[in-house]
């Protein structure tokens, strides 16, 4: 949203992928914007600490370059991952995947 024009649409999509036998289901959240996009050659670097794709924009777009690095490491701690697909001038799609919580079997309480 930070790199999208004012009023531009940003979609958030979520789904749960069932796990196979012995696998944990996964929750996937996609955030899709129609912003400036990220050049393909920069995609491998955007999760590094203090990395800014375009340092010349540092004055007009505030930030430290820590946000995506923090997200990546928090997801790793929770056995998740983050991926990005982007095209310069068309926008980006960030996909976050985490193990889905499975509800415990419901306990039946009897009251008298």
What does this structure look like?
The protein starts with 10 loop residues before the first strand and ends in a 13-residue tail after the last strand. A four-stranded antiparallel sheet has the order 1-2-4-3, with helices on one face. The radius of gyration is 18 Å and the shape is globular. The protein has 112 residues and is mainly beta. The chain has one helix and four strands, in the order E-E-H-E-E. The longest helix is centred in the middle third of the chain and has 11 residues, at 67-77.
Structure in a nutshell:
This protein is mostly beta strands and 112 residues long.
In what order do the strands lie side by side in the largest sheet? 1-2-4-3
Helix share of residues? under 10%
- Name the shape in a single word: globular
- Our measurement of the CA-to-CA distance between the termini, rounded to an integer number of angstroms, reads 54 Å
Helix count? 1
Largest sheet: 4 strands, antiparallel
Order of helices and strands: EEHEE
Q: Quick one: how many beta strands?
A: 4
Strand content: 25-35%
Name the average pLDDT.
82
Q: Which class of secondary structure composition applies to the elements?
A: mainly beta
Radius of gyration: 18 Å
Low-confidence stretches: none
What are the SSEs and their pairings?
Blueprint: E1 11-17, E2 26-32, H1 67-77, E3 81-87, E4 91-99
Antiparallel strand pairs: 1-2, 2-4, 3-4
């Amino acid at each position: 949203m930070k790199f999208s024009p004012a009023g531009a649409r940003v979609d958030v999509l979520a789904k749960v992928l069932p796990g196979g036998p012995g696998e944990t289901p996964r929750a996937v959240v996609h955030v899709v914007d129609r912003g400036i996009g990220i050049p393909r050659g920069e995609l491998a670097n955007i999760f590094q600490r203090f990395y800014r794709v375009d340092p010349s924009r540092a004055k007009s777009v505030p930030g430290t370059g820590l946000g995506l690095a923090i997200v990546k490491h928090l997801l790793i701690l929770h056995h998740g991952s983050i991926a990005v697909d982007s095209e310069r001038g068309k926008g980006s799609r960030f996909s976050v995947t985490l193990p889905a919580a499975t509800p415990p079997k419901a306990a039946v309480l009897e009251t008298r």
